[in-house]
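Re: that backbone. Tokens:
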């Protein structure tokens, strides 16, 4: 048995920017919601997809905004996209998929919590997202990430091949190079190659020697990079805290609650009528 965990926020953004606009009978923009319904129903048709949950950022802001003023906010996000978060969360429920709508924590924290909580109870946890910060959750081939768009699976060896560091070093890596999607700036001068080389040897920030002469690896501009790391040590540890996913999000469900039992016929058809989704009314292959 495998557990699939779906990054609902990513799915919504991907559908919003990758699909044509579409209006409900009352004029609301609902194209991205339709896209998420279609791709999720498609996922549920794939062999081995028996247990599935999703997570969304009901609000973009989280506790991390209290830690760092520059962290990502909802500013600049298209209002037509933001307005569809409640619709997508409702849609997940109607098609029988548990959805964790996050307020204080982020969707990624819910997924990390679920992966950590249930990885020993299933043969494999498949985290459906291309986001690099989720790679820190990978454990051997028991917890993997899946880029559904490109059909690329990353296990622990795959993470090392892609980033030059293991899953346990991903927060350190992102602290050094930054993560523009989340508003984490990283340190000046540090790039993917230098971070991978140094962390490939020392794994974590606190283990990196303060003198470049002691790094035991060859890095271009090492002296300057070491000086920057020393000067900005408080910043870089804050960045690592920001990029470290939490494993204590409040998830009330048991693993058995994540077993997909089909689409709630009445609720789904009501949603289709409300939003004008005539073309997906017959798409589900299993009804409750």
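Recovered sequence:
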């Amino acid at each position: 048995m495998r557990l699939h965990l779906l990054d609902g926020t990513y799915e919504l953004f991907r559908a919003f920017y990758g699909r044509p606009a579409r209006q409900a009978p009352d004029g609301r923009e609902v194209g991205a919601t339709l896209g998420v319904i279609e791709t999720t129903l498609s996922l549920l048709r794939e062999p081995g997809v028996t247990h599935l949950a999703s997570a969304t950022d009901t609000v973009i802001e989280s506790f991390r905004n209290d830690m760092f003023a520059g962290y990502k906010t909802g500013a600049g996000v298209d209002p037509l996209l933001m307005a569809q978060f409640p619709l997508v969360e409702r849609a997940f429920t109607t098609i029988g998929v548990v959805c964790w709508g996050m307020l204080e924590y982020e969707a990624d924290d819910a997924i990390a919590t679920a992966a950590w909580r249930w990885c020993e109870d299933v043969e494999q946890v498949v985290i459906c997202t291309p986001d690099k910060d989720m790679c820190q959750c990978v454990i051997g081939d028991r917890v993997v990430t899946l880029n559904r768009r490109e059909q690329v699976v990353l296990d622990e060896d795959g993470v090392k091949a892609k980033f030059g560091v293991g899953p346990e070093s991903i927060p350190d890596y992102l602290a050094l190079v930054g993560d523009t999607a989340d508003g984490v700036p990283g340190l000046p001068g540090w790039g993917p190659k230098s971070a991978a080389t140094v962390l490939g040897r020392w794994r974590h920030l606190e283990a990196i020697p303060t003198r470049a002469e002691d790094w035991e690896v060859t890095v271009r501009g090492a002296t300057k990079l070491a000086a920057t790391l020393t000067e900005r040590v408080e910043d870089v540890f804050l960045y690592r805290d920001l990029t470290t996913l939490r494993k204590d999000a409040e998830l009330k469900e048991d693993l058995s609650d994540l077993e997909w039992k089909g689409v709630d016929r009445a609720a789904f058809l009501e949603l289709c009528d409300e939003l004008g989704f005539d073309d997906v009314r017959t798409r589900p292959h299993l009804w409750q």
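The chain has a mean pLDDT of 97. The beta strands are 2-7, 51-57, 98-102, 124-128, 143-147, 152-154.
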